Structure formats: structure tokens, C-alpha cells
Known about the structure:
By secondary structure, this protein is of the alpha/beta class. It is 37% helix and 17% strand.
Amino acid sequence: MRLLFFSLSAAAFGETxxxxxxxxxxxxxGYESHFVVPPGTASAVEHFGFGHDVIDYADCPKGADARALxxxxxxxxxxxxxxxxxxxxxxxxxxxxxxxxxxxxxxxxLPILPIDLSEWENxxxxxxxxGRGPVTVSKKILEMPAHLRPVPxxxxxxxxxxxxxxxxxxxxxxxxxERARAEVFAEFGLGRSDRLVMIPVSSWQQPSGGRxxxxxxxxxxxxxxxxxxxxxxxxxxxxxxxLIGQQPPAFGKLAADRLHVLPPCSVERYTTLLGSAxxxxxxxxxxATSARAVLMDQAAMVxxxxxxxxxxxxxxxxxxxxxxxxxxxEWLGETAPIDRFRLWPKGAYEIQEPMFTDNPYLDALLTxxxxxxxxxxxxxxxxxxxxxxxxxxxxxxxxxxxxxADLPDAGEVVRAAIQRAS
Length: 422
């Protein structure tokens, strides 16, 4: 069976990685896969060894000419089914960059399987964004009889409508060997008593003037790292940090001998670093990185903000609830207004609320509120240095991983989903 993946996000690698990880699992079951991607993710597809076509939004055809380009790819590849990796980025990319009604693909008469990263059926199809109005997404997925749900972060069931097909987001990855971990520690000059915290920064978390940005999100891009750095600096001196991606300026305040900045790296290198870290910190609960960390039985922390703070009354209510420190109060005085966010600095708090309600995945993670200095610093230090705390978190991961292990093989899941979609 031959599958054609549309992985069209130009702003983030995660959606493409999720598609590639699925294709890699399916390859073991005899499936063939071909990808349509923008230039920024083509090298990753090459690394996995899949055929691909590249669409460069800077100079690609639009409208009817773009449709003709896709027609040619379909005729050449002759897929048995189409996979949208993922549904939201496919819709936005085709609508905005190609100037097409995204659902022209129905004309091909092929089963269409959207990868559902938001459990869309439970949302209002409006992505809430910091400092601006929401971006709406097509409700077409409600007409599609089969949705692929990667676990983590999706729930483990088919959902209220019964159209979800949960599958393991990546195949079982072997743990990083003690020798590989020792080599990573030696590279950064760390000893056995030291701890390593990994902090990936994605391209979409950098300053931009894109259509999903605002003055508030630009301000949060600059200011939120200041709080995180303030918290990290309070950890014992044996704590070191490896930042992957473009360094936010605030990280320059950390001791130079404790901060190790790396450019975006190969999949193998990233995997080794992820498996070697004592803790990984992410600003997106739906990230493939946090999902992989948990599946590798590694500690992961998701940092978010569940508080809307627009005026002094909001600050007073927040202080009453969590007890603001002087640093955070001062920061709010300089930074507010701020909205709630799960995806720093964009927002997407409300849209992801159904996904993270009664989801056992949260038990396998640490969730930190960026405005709660005392609780966040305590969770950071305990996850790195408190054996009892670590054991409790490990037990929660083990319970969750036991549920994930009961999921059927990805090949079986996709076969059943194609039958349903047909």
C-alpha cells in the first residue's frame, strides 16, 4: 500500500516529524510512503529515506497552477490513501500559501486520513492567540470518518464521535546507553554528580511578524525567557543547561560555564541528547519532544500560563491564589497585559483544553506555571535532586506507558482507518 503524506508546515518541524515517525512504523508493515513538504523539512525526509516533493512557498504556483502541481504528484505517485500531517497545518498551509480550497483533494476519490493533534471534534475550531483574535479552522474533519490520533498527546480512546484511531506516536526507542550519556556529559565537562537540563527552542518560538503574531506575542517572546532564566539560576551549581536552537537573549544571564548552546541538530544527535538529559523543558504540551521523552521514560516538564493578567485587579487575584514573588510581580508590572498560553508565545490555551482534560498523559509529565515562581523552582529542583520525587514521577510514567503499550501496532491502526475512510 502506498501513502502520500502532506506535511506542509513551514513554521515547525514537529508536524513533519510526527508524519515521518508514523511512516517509519508503517514501513515495517510493508507500507510505502511519499511526502510533500516545504524546503525546511526536506532534509529530515531524506534522512528517513522517503521519497518526497518539495513545494517552496516563496515561488510555488498558486490557485489553479498549484492544483495542477498536486495533480501531477498524485498521478506520478498513485497513492492508495492521503495522510494530512497534521490536519490544522494542512488546512492553513493550502489555504494561505497555495490559494486553494484545501478540500480539492476529495476529487481524487482516495481515503483521507487527517492526523488529529487537537482532538478537533471537542473544540470550537478557533485557535485562541495572545493579543489578537482567534484564527478559525475548517470543520471538514467532522465529515471524515477516520482520524489518526497520536499518543501521546491524544487520549487513548476513539473519542466521543468514535472516529479517532489512537496509535503510538513513535515506535519504541531504545534507551540511550550509559556510554553515550557519559560521552554527552564529557562533551560539556560534566561529572557524575552534575545534572543536565535540555531546553529546545523551535523556529516558531522566535520573533516574527507572521499572521498568527501580535504585539503581545512579540513581547512574550522576549520576556518569558527572563522568568525561566531567573528560576534556572536558583538551581544548584551542579545543574547545567543545553539549549538547542536560537538562544533567547535572556539566557545570556546564566553562568557561561553552565549553559551549552547548540544549533538545530540531526535526529540521531537530538535523540541522544534527549535520552541523556535528566530533565527536558518544553513550552508546548503537544510537542513531539515531550512525548518522546515520556516514551523514553525520561522526565519532562511543560511550562505554560493559565492566567489572564490584564490589570491590577488580575494581579491581586493571582497573588491571592498562588502568592506572587517580588520578581514575578515586578515582571508583570512591566509585561502585562498577557493572555493564557500553552504554546509560548502564540497562545492556544483554550483550543487545547479538551485535549488535556482527564488525559492520563498529564500524570506522566510535570506541568509548571511560569508565573508561580515558588512551585516551579521547587518542581525543577525536586525533579533533578529528590529521589523520592523522582521515583513518584517514574511510577506515574510507568502506569501511563503500560496503557500506551496496549495500543495496537500502527500498521493495524492505519489499515483499519483506511477501511473506515473508504
